[in-house]
Amino acid sequence: MEKRQILIADDDAAIVAALDILCDGKGYATTTANSVEQVNYLVKKQDFDLVLLDMNFQLDTTSGAEGLALIESIRNAQPLCAIVVMTGWSSVELSVEAMQLGANDFIEKPWENERLLSIIANQLKLKDSRSQSEKLAQHNQLLQKSSSDNQDYIAQAPSSSQMLNTALQVAQSELSIVIYGDNGTGKSLLAKKIHHMSSRAEQAFVSVNMGAIPESLFESEMFGHVKGAFTDAKADRAGRFELADKGTLFLDEIANIPLSQQAKLLRVLESKEFERVGGNKTQIADVRVICATNADLTALVEQGKFRRDLLFRLAGIDITVPALKQRQHDILPLAQQCLQKWVNKYQKSQIQFSVLAEQALLAYDWPGNVRELQHCIERAVVLCQGETIEPSDLRLTLDVVSGGADASEHAQNNTTFDSDMTLDDIEKQVIIQRLDKYKGNAIETAKSLGLSRSAFYRRLEKYQL
């Protein structure tokens, strides 16, 4: 078990030595400081469980002003750290002020060893409780989001029905899963379905788009960081593995993880151990991993772009989600599901599809798959003037409906924008149409828009594409 980290801050060398011996005898790891500057430096660079803080650092000073200022500084740097203040010039007013600023307890000099050790032990327990409460709050937020995302998975077509049966068979196991499929086929939705059908359903489902993480922030995003670990680390932050502990971690676009980071991912998958960036505590995460990609991972292994041992570790079983054009029986049920979703969101009166609109939906090739269908229905709900959606509301051109080779290009060249659309609305529509043009290829789409990969993925997340 790792030693608890205690910072002893006092300008009296004899007091520091006595506290150091006392704490060391109880198995605590101690760091010492004898000035305000040292304390401020250390709390920004190292993670402490508790600080024993003198209230005065200058000779002939009894006001406690230095200690009060340090309490605020420590609390800003390490919100969960326990602070026990000490002074030889105790007063009720100073005690109250110290507690109001964030101190957890107060002791007079000279102290009784047993009383001080009891205070330290109690404050460390309370600090652990605060840490657990914060983690539980984050966990509950993830559970609420996961629950709200849990919708019925439409699988009436033979190809999708067979796929779903396989997914549900392995849901109760602890096997890691790789979900293959074109962009927009609903891989993330299937991952959530597997989670909700597993023994981990009451725990968190944490999703991360591997293509959207800059290489320089990979470790921070996945494993978390402590305050001061790097320039922008303003506070401690839990990583995705920590948040997904006991639950499911969904790694979308797994093929986009840089080769240089794959070894770090492999290590935590094999050992279940990791450290926050800048931290010195080894943590354990019990997660079930589900990955998704539209790439051929085996081919990437042969090309030297993906580690073979990582693929073996991830691919307990492979599941392929068929394209929407291969799921004809699912198109209308999916459209109805989308229709109800957007009607509720936009608070519209009950709307239904006309027979011709349904025929148009069935005739369309859906190069953007389920994602394109969702946006098509959303647009139709917004544009529909009555209680029936007609083909004109769907805005599926004849070339597109007939599945012509130039359908995507035709749609791209006939882009129209409503006069009341915002810049965000226009950008979202352009991205959707460009994705259609490049048949869901994210890299080609990003290049055509003049965007970096990470900038493009940030926009996909922004517009929930």
TrEMBL record:
Could you tell me which residues carry 4-aspartylphosphate?
A: 54
For this protein, the record's PROSITE patterns field holds: RESPONSE_REGULATORY, SIGMA54_INTERACT_2, SIGMA54_INTERACT_3, SIGMA54_INTERACT_4
Can you tell which superkingdom this protein's organism belongs to?
Bacteria
Entry-linked InterPro entries: AAA+_ATPase, AAA_lid_NorR, CheY-like_superfamily, Homeodomain-like_sf, HTH_Fis, P-loop_NTPase, Sig_transdc_resp-reg_receiver, Sigma_54_int
SMART domains linked to this entry: AAA (SM00382), REC (SM00448)
Recorded source organism is Saccharobesus litoralis
Q: Where is the signal peptide?
A: none
Gene3D superfamilies (UniProt xref): 1.10.8.60, 3.40.50.2300, Homeodomain-like, P-loop containing nucleotide triphosphate hydrolases
Start and end residues of each Sigma-54 factor interaction domain: 153-382
GO BP terms in the entry: phosphorelay signal transduction system; regulation of DNA-templated transcription
GO MF annotations for this entry?
Answer: ATP binding; sequence-specific DNA binding
The UniProt record lists the Response regulatory domain at: 5-124
CDD domains, sorted:
AAA
SUPFAM superfamilies listed in its UniProt record: CheY-like (SSF52172), Homeodomain-like (SSF46689), P-loop containing nucleoside triphosphate hydrolases (SSF52540)
User: What is the official name of this protein in its record?
Assistant: Sigma-54-dependent Fis family transcriptional regulator
Query: What keywords is this UniProt entry annotated with?
Result: ATP-binding, DNA-binding, Nucleotide-binding, Phosphoprotein, Transcription, Transcription regulation
